Structure formats: C-alpha cells, structure tokens
Protein 1
Amino acid sequence: MSAERPRIEVYPGREAVVEFDPDLTFECVDDCTWCCHHGVLLYDRDLLELAARANLAETTTDFRGEKFVAREDKGREEHVDDDGNACAFLREDGLCSLHAEEDWKPARCSVFPLGVWRESGDLHVGIRDSAHDHCEGLGVSERRVIDELDAFLPELLWEIPNPDSDREL
Ligand code: SF4
Ligand code: SF4
C-alpha cells in the first residue's frame, strides 16, 4: 500500500512517504493554540537544546521513561485546555515563549498537525487523528503541506531510531 504513496525528498537523501492527500493545505490559526495545551515529547537532542534555555526541573516531566515538556495550571481562561492547563512555555498572549524569545522550539512542536512514524525503515508522514478533530488550520489557506514538508519535519527525525510522534502525556 505504501508503495503507491508519493515519496518526497525533504532533505538531500532523506525521503518521507506521504500518507495524506497531496492537496491538503494548512496555515496555523494564531488564536487556536490547541496543540500547545498538551505536554510534548522531547527527543534527546531537544532535551539538550532545552537545557541551555530553561530550567528542566521546572519545565519537564517524565512519563513512561521519556521526557516531555510539562503542562501546568495557567490560572487563566484563554489558551488553556478544559482543565486550565497548557504547556509550560505557552504565554498568556498565545505565543510560545521558546519560539518568540529564543527562536527555537522542540522538534515535535514543528510536526503538528502532522504525525510521523517509521515503517520498514522509511519515515512516513500523515495527519494526526487529533488534528482532524481540533486543528483549525487544515484547509484554510493555499499553502500545500506537501510543498513545504521541511517546515514540519526537522531533519533530526531521520536520525533517531524512534521518531514516532504518537506519544503524549
Ligand atoms: S514548547 Fe512552545 S510550541 Fe511547543 S507545545 Fe509548548 S508552547 Fe507550544
Ligand atoms: S492546532 Fe493547528 S491551528 Fe491550532 S495552534 Fe496547533 S497547528 Fe495551529
């Protein structure tokens, strides 16, 4: 089945098997912030990068043997999940403090609304089920995802043994 899927060279020598409609468009909706209401997985290299920018004891948590950015009670009603929590780095104005102030964010944050997984050695990319339900940015612009896969898929995804993004707090 995957043999019929388009294979896109995202970086020289690094291909992804595309498992979504090639005509899919996307543009992040600023005020949405849904994908920042959850704790995101930190790949090992992210953890090193984050350690240079933040207090890991205050901003990360362990779950099933892996590190995630912690969720915290924000004490506000905007840009939070139903339980009042959101990512430790999500500011009151809906911006990511890491992205806005450090021009960096964890790799996993770039991937959403896509999801990646490794299958028979290949990196596959699709749309996450949760994105279909919650992401407001699908199909709202002329920007085809398949034309800009490098914006969603950091190169380190090809370099780690288990890049599967379907791991959440
Ligand atoms: S680190 Fe930034 S981009 Fe990632 S979930 Fe948290 S607020 Fe959102
Ligand atoms: S859920 Fe989609 S539209 Fe909302 S902030 Fe995340 S990527 Fe943007």
Note: Residues 36, 40, 69, 87, 89-90, 96, 98-99, 105-106, 109 surround iron/sulfur cluster (ligand 1) (CB under 6 Å).
Protein 2
Amino acid sequence: MSSLLGHRRREFPQSVRKAALKRCTRDSKPHCETCDAELGERTGIIFEHVTPDGLGGEPTLENCKVHCKTCADVKTHTEDNPRMRKADRTIKARFGLKPTRVKIQSKPFAKAPPQRKASSPVEKWRGF
Ligand SMILES: [Zn+2]
C-alpha cells in the first residue's frame, strides 16, 4: 500500500516477533490470534500491525498480532485498505491534490444508420 506520507515501511524487529510468537504459543505450537488455527507452513505465520504502519502504527509488541494467512488477508482487505484509502483521500483533499487529467479529443458522432423500412405487410399495417 502506498502512503502519501512517504516514509518507509517499518517491519517488526526480531525481538518483537519472538515475543509475539511466544504470546500465541500453546502446547509448543503457535496459534492464530484471531481464529485460533494452528500455524505452520500451510497456514503461514504473519506478523501484522494492528494500526497499519502507513497510519502511524508503531512496530511494537502491543501493535503486533500473529495471524494465519486467511485472517491477515481479511484484515488487510476489509479494514486496512479502506482506512488507508480514506487517509489518502483526506490528505489529497486537505492539500488540494488532484490527479492530472489529460483532455481526450472528442470526435463527432458517426452518422446515424438509415432507418429500417417495414418489410412485411403486417409491419406496414401496424406502422412499424
Ligand atoms: Zn486466523
């Protein structure tokens, strides 16, 4: 996701990832903190910002959630992306940024096709 703020994405440091993984581990296996699925190679282990990085979310343990791929995708597409788009719109509106528009040359409409003439006697009678 692009950010108008222009700062680089800040990933979680290894110490935060280790602590988050420890937090969600039961019976020596990590579990998704949203759907409680057991995490492994099949489900993936994703460390996700609760408050998106692009909106000022810090790379801290409090702002980190351990998710499976499915939960991470759901959060990204239903929560993070709409919030980021709204933030971008707000910034663009505040600073009066508008997309550059290229004027498209208009062409006159093509000549209309000739009117269809009634071919059968019934159509002639009905006035089609
Ligand atoms: Zn999950």
Note: The longest strand covers residues 46-49.
